[in-house]
Each structure stands twice: as structure tokens, then as C-alpha cells.
Amino acid sequence: MSKLSHCIKIIMLLQTHQMITSKEIAKILNITPRNVKAYIEYLKLAGVPIEGMTGRKGGYFLADSFYFKPPNIDDVEYSALLLAEKLLMQNVGFPLKNELKTAMAKIKSVIGDVVTDELPIPADEFVFSFGKVDKRDGLSRTLTIVCMAIKQRKRLEILYYTASKDERKLRQVDPYAVVHREGSWYLIGFCHLRNQIRTFKLVRIEHIEILNTSFVYPAEFSISDYMSNIFSIIQGEKYNVEIRFFHPASIWVREKTWLPTQQIEDLGDGSILFKATVKGLIDIKRWVMSFGKLAVVQKPKELVKNIQNELKELNDLYF
Using an 8 Å Cβ cutoff, are 163 and 170 in contact? Predict the structure, then answer.
């Protein structure tokens, strides 16, 4: 990609983000942060009002008075949009389908006949499967309100149903982020009832309201750090786990990245040793038990004990 093309794309990224770091730009454009800084200096010399802010939440941004009309998108970029639209429209758990339809209609009306309205492969041969998804009336409205509160840095009041305790409680939450995982949407935020960061499943929020109370996003909080090394959305104490998987489960486990910390050791007999650091044991226990006799936990002893207790209770129920 030419220097001019990189510069134009950097302007587009700056124009569509309130703040973006050189690392984020570099990752999107597949260049180095050093290249990004060089291009930004070049753009500044050309009169583009790019400003910067240091610190953990800092980055680059454009002056409000600046606007650059983007060139028409090409066939490859438009194909990417169409594929993304098809993916999200087929996902029955995506709650903003109507908004996506109107947004894509606006894009298509602006583009006109510049690009073809076709996928790179026939639509009937491009199918997505998402498995189980949450289903509840009003989920789209809940997600929209949560996103608005995050953007405006406003506190939320929610009536939340806790399934494990079968109870409903009114809570005030400072919303930090929204996470979509395994077919469900979650709100991550500071719960003033529990005085700590908690996770709330959107489908269990029975009432939601944005309060006229602002909050400050904590400088020390990072959603990527918070979500690291968790097997599912439920968190807990850190553990180092070691699980032996026998064939053919060893093949299935090899085929995916389950955790960023995972290591897989070939034991030479068709089995593997899966090692990782996790936060909490609830979901890793469910995962291990889903493989039946093909998975045996070796560490930690707490997980071994949890599975033994589960098996004992199952034995009491069935025998």
C-alpha cells in the first residue's frame, strides 16, 4: 500500500474514532507504530489538525473543525461490509438487526453503482452457525441503553435477576464495557450494591434506566486485561490447570485456541496435556465434564475435588 493510501486510511480512522492509539492504527493497517507516527507527522506538515494526548487512555484525535470527505470504497472493502452484514443478520442473537439494515441502506444509497452488490462467493454457499443464543423481548432496547450510558459515562439503575439465588435486586452500576460471548451479551461495570466490578447478563436485566449521575472511567481498568484468562464470562480466583485429553478429544482440543495462556504438550500416545491459567473453576469444570472419560484433570486439586463431588451427586441421582 502506498504512502498516500496509508495517510488517507489514517485520516479515516481518526475521523471515525474519538481517540485511537498508534498501536491500534498499526494493527488495523498491518504496519508498525513507528510507521504510524511518521505518517501522522507527514499529515501534520500537510495541515491536517491531528492532536495527541498522552497517558494510558491517550491517543490521537482530529480537531472538531476538520472534515475530510472519504473516497469511494472499492469492491474488496464493500465485499467485507456485505459479509459482515450477512454474518450479523444470520446471528439470531444480534439485537440491532433493524438498525443494521437502515445503516447498510444508507451506505448503499450513497455508493450507488460504484461497486457491485454481490458477495465474493454465492450467498447460498456462505452460511454461519452460531449455536445457542439468548432470547428475550426488549434485548435490543437494553443493549442500546447500555451502549448509550457507556458513551455518555452515565450511571445505570437496573433491576437484575440472579438465577443462582432466584432473587431480584435493584442495583446502580457504572457501565464500563459490553461483551458478547457464547451467544450472550454481558455488561461489565462497577456495582455500587456489591462495591466491586461485576458481570451482568443483559437477558436478566428486567428494568433499566440511565441516571443523571456521571462517573469517571477508572484509569487502571482495562477490559482486555479483565477478560484475559477466563474460560467463560464467570470469574473467580486464578488457578493453573492441567488436563489430559485422550483421542479423539485430543484432536478437538488442538483445533481451537481456548485461552491465551494455553500450552499443549504431546504425550506421544495420541493424548495431550492441556495447560492454562484460568480465573474461576465453574466453567472449566463444565468444559472438562463435557468430554466424559476422554478428559482427566491432573491439576488443581480443587478442580479434581469439584468434579468428584459432581460425579457423586450424579451417581446418587441415577443409581
Answer: no
Fold entry, domain 3-62: Arc Repressor Mutant, subunit A (1.10.10)
Q: What is the bridge-based pairing of β-strands 184-191 and 59-62? A: unpaired
**CB distance 240 to 275 below 8 Å:** yes
Burial of 304 (0-12, 13-18, 19+ CB in 10 A): middle
Fold of 139-227: SH3 type barrels. (2.30.30)
Three-state secondary structure string covering the chain: CCHHHHHHHHHHHHHCCCCECHHHHHHHHCCCHHHHHHHHHHHHHCCCCEEEECCCCCEEEECCCCCCCCCCCCHHHHHHHHHHHHHHHHCCCCCCHHHHHHHHHHHHHHHCCCCCCCCCCCHHHCCCCCCCCCCCCCHHHHHHHHHHHHHHCEEEEEEEEECCCCEEEEEEEEEEEEEEECCEEEEEEEECCCCEEEEEEHHHEEEEEEEEEECCCCCCCCHHHHHCCCCCCCCCCEEEEEEEECCCHHHHHHCCCCCCCCEEEECCCCCEEEEEEEECCHHHHHHHHCCHHHEEEEECHHHHHHHHHHHHHHHHHHC
Gap between the Cα atoms of 310 and 307, Å rounded: 5
pLDDT in tens, the chain (319 residues): 578 888 888 888 888 777 889 998 988 888 899 999 999 999 999 888 998 888 777 889 888 778 777 667 777 777 777 777 777 776 656 777 777 777 777 777 666 544 455 555 555 555 555 556 676 778 878 888 998 898 889 999 999 998 778 889 999 999 998 887 777 788 999 999 999 999 899 989 999 999 999 999 888 888 877 776 566 566 668 899 999 999 999 999 988 888 878 899 999 999 999 999 888 888 889 899 999 999 999 999 999 999 999 999 998 998 8
Query: Residue 233: what are its φ and ψ, rounded to 5°?
Result: -75, -20
